[in-house]
Amino acid sequence: MPRRIVSAVQHIGHRVIESIWRLGYASRFFILVLLKSGTSLRRFGLVMRELYFTGVLSLIIIVVSGLFVGMVLGLQGYETLQKYGSESAVGTLVALSLVRELGPVVAALLFASRAGSAITAEIGLMKATEQLAAMGMMAVDPVARVVAPRFWAGVISMPLLAAIFSVMGVFGGYLVTVVFIGVDEGSFWSQMQSAVDFRFDILNGFIKSCFFGVAVTAIAVFEGYDAPPTAEGVSGATTRTVVTSSLVILGLDFILTAFMFRGVS
Amino acid sequence: MQRTTMDLWVGLFVITGIIALMILSLKVGNLNVYNPSQSYVITGNFENIGGLKVRAPVKSAGVVVGRVTDIQFSTQTYDAVVTMDMDSRFPFPKDTFASILTAGLLGEQYIGLAAGGDEVMLKNGDKIMKTNSAMVLEELIGRFLFNKAADDDSF
To answer: Counting C-beta atoms within 10 Å of the first and last residue's C-beta, which end of chain A has fewer, N or C?
Structure first.
């Protein structure tokens, strides 16, 4: 009996040590990517190509879901606010919730499942088919040539995608409440403009999306680079990218919100 | 895919993103209305500020002329010291009356300024002498009931 207890404790210890080791490995990999990103920023064509795949091809899903999120927000906000006779405040509701929270967070979640998973699968498959090893043989650093451009493309495109998401959401809210339901257009915009502050709301949302961009792409490239070189390993790494980055986005969002908006209003 | 087409799409994407940021700051956030770089700071002591918060607007005749930047409690006078950042385009006379008002029945609270007739204008760091506290609903009801009771006694 004591031996089974000892082995159970050992099992827990093993798991803890392994996860901490992995965290340290991921951090060291992240620093390595930052150190070797000089080449990719000098040869900007590499980043350009990745910007097309992570940014431009994510536009459709971001635009459509932004529009629908804004429309639903407008509809639900109108239903509730109308009970208090203040349906013109629906613009404030839509704009503030999009700019502060939903824009950065939902755009980052979509970005993680649309672009993050693709990055992981691509790098993982390159590793499984020994393309990365072949690059190393030709004295081309795979981290500088393959990983860093993808990382920077994700970091650049995430804030832009979040801003597009927020704008589409505000437009969707406008469409539903002003055009379809018939809330007064002037009070919709003026109440929104008087409530949304540039520094406290828009800039903080922008900073949030920058953090999310770094987190999602760092996780995606690490999981791809670290994937076991098998079909199963790549599929597992892709799943882990989506799950881990979604959890990290939500956790990071709470921490950032606590720092940014605590005691402000 | 051709290199130039890809560049075109990426350029379009980046321009769209920047336009989205500009729409957010200009159309949604209304960035250009109030420029805090040209401002002067005034303070006022209020007996009771009610629900006034930092960043609440300072209005005169309904127009936003400044913002509340700081609220402190003074242990010398035991009242609230409210610091206001005023747009320097709008100078106010020295005997301006400041009162804490409520937008609508349940709306947010703001500071309303009523200009006086003094020749001397408020300067940076000056203090407003005439202030009027926030209206607290309980006090109001209490006063009303008290007056009612006093009226009843007179019968």
So the answer is: N
Answer yes or no: do A160 and B21 touch at CB < 8 A: yes
Asked if A262 reaches chain B (Cβ–Cβ under 8 Å), the answer is no
Instruction: Examine the domain organization and report whether B42 and B117 are in the same domain.
Output: yes
Residue of B nearest to A153 (CA): B10
Q: Are residues B28 and B42 in the same domain?
A: no
pLDDT at B153 over 70: no
Binary contact (B21, A194; C-beta < 8 A): no
In a domain, residue B80? The reply is yes
Partners of residue A192 in chain B, C-beta under 8 Å = 28
pLDDT digits (tens, 9 = 90+) for A77-100: 999 988 887 877 888 899 999 999
ipTM of the complex: 0.77
Nearest CA in chain A to B7: A48
Q: Which residue among B3, B7, B28 places its CB closest to the CB of A99?
A: B28
Range of the domain at B6: 1-33
Same-domain pairing of B83 and B109 = yes
Sequence letter at residue B101 = L
B41-91 pLDDT, tens digit per residue, is 999 888 888 878 777 888 888 888 888 888 899 898 888 999 988 888 888
Decide if pLDDT at B139 tops 90.
no
Looking at the structure, do residues B73 and B131 belong to the same domain, yes or no? yes
Instruction: Count Cβ–Cβ pairs < 8 Å, chain A vs chain B.
Output: 84
Which tens digits make up the pLDDT trace of A209-228? Answer: 999 999 999 999 999 998 99
Flag whether B129 is in a domain: yes
Query: How many CB atoms within 10 Å of residue B2?
Result: 7
As for how many domains chain B has, the answer is 2
